[in-house]
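Researcher: Batch entry, complex prediction.
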Amino acid sequence: MELIQLAVGGVANGCIYGLVALGFVLIYKTSEGVNFAQGDLMMLGAFVALGLGNSAQMGLSFWLAVPLAVCIMFCVGWGVERVVVRRIFGQPQFALVILTIALGFVFRFVAGSIWGYSPLVLETPFNGVNLRFGELVISMADLLTIVITLALTFGLWTFFAHTRIGLAAQAASQNQMAAYIVGIPVMKVNSLIWGLSGAVATVAGVLYATRGAIDPNIGLLGIKAFAAAVIGGLGSLPGALLGGMLIGVVEPIAGRYAPGGIAIMSPYIIMLAVLVTRPGGLFAQIHMKKV
Amino acid sequence: MSLLEVEDLAVHFGGVKAVDGVSFAVDQGEVFAIIGPNGAGKSTIFNLISHIYQPTRGRICFDGADITGSKPQDMARLGIARTFQNIELFDHSTVLDNLLMGRHTHRQSNFIQDILFLPSVRREERLHRERVEEVIEFLELEAYRNKRIEGLPYGVRKIVEIGRALAIGPKLILLDEPASGLSVEETQDVAFWIEDMRRDMGLTVLMVEHDMGLVSQVCDRVLAVANGKPLAQGTPHEVQADPHVQAAYLGTPEEVAV
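Model: Structure tokens for the complex:
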């Protein structure tokens, strides 16, 4: 029973990792680069929702504050691409890595100077609401986290697999020159995807905030989420979610049954194990070059 | 009537005049080749026509409209398709998906319809699939339909790229060295396809090519360039016989003496 209880909490936690990992995959799918500010986008999204919704701040209704925060962060993601990322178009991928690490610092500073560095709690209509199934206790926040994550992943998968714009984004990620030639406005598609990753990060941030206090350093969770994305195969949306869940479930179980310290290392141990056995990740999108 | 008119085209990269004052016109239904030694600016002219580069000077008119200043993503919609010397395909996708991407600008369905996968979307997809199947049949790519590009031999990739250009449904097709790296038999196939594109599909073909055998066989007219400047224009025979062209390829007697 204890194991199941741990696993449920772990799955919910894993959903957060998975959602941030989705952000990594989105950017990777379009620009074949890694956005190391993804975790900080999540943090900023959570703070924007908190700033709009908490009674001590703007005091909007939770159900209004969250969609508004998602829209604002869509614009932030879109704007980051338009104003900053586009300038390094065509530069080596390493430029994007350094740029996004720097962006992460900027986001942390911005959030810190607006909302301070001490932990704050997002007020939600379901703070402290628990559901009981026999001995099993599931918090409303955990349940919502799981449901929303699954729905969002399915939605994004449909978007990439079936819509004209989603297919265009996939094409642009494989070969920008070829994408131009078949009539895809590559730059616009990139902006849109950055916007989308800002929006997804915000959903992750709000769900994270429903489960505990937030401060400007929670973005460091992005490193674990990156491990999740790598485990899943970096180009795969379901893979990112699965990688996140795997880490999320193993962490609390290792914390309970394994010697201290193993739990903290577990995401990276899993990542190493996956990389050694399946270098392309569990849902490999990168294929061995034929020689 | 001219389908494509290029007037006094020039592009300078810093002090390098990659293309400098090139003018020519390609008639509707014509097969036109640009030849020249390596580094003459042939591919740069292609990149200017497909608007990957913006010209420093000059004008490009297509189908009666001035298209100078357009964006590269506008070309497919205007009816200009191209291939690349170094092959630019969606490497992780299948041949079929690559060709279907060529239909991108022809897709009418909107976002909501796509998400719901309405009957109208399915009908439209069948239509695009039919067009793509025609291209597959034309280029005899049936055996490779569901193969990923990254595993295919060079010659096949080259043909897939021509296929994607045809799937766009263009008026003008730009072929950048269609025969380079191909065997004699494959080059012969390319020659037949170019003939068919003109005769059966009513396409206008502009190509850059080094293989003078292919050029003489399929082209109506040829423009020779060297160092970014035009040297001669005329039938393949006339251009090959031109003393300036021969000098550009072989060097003048004086240069040889020095």
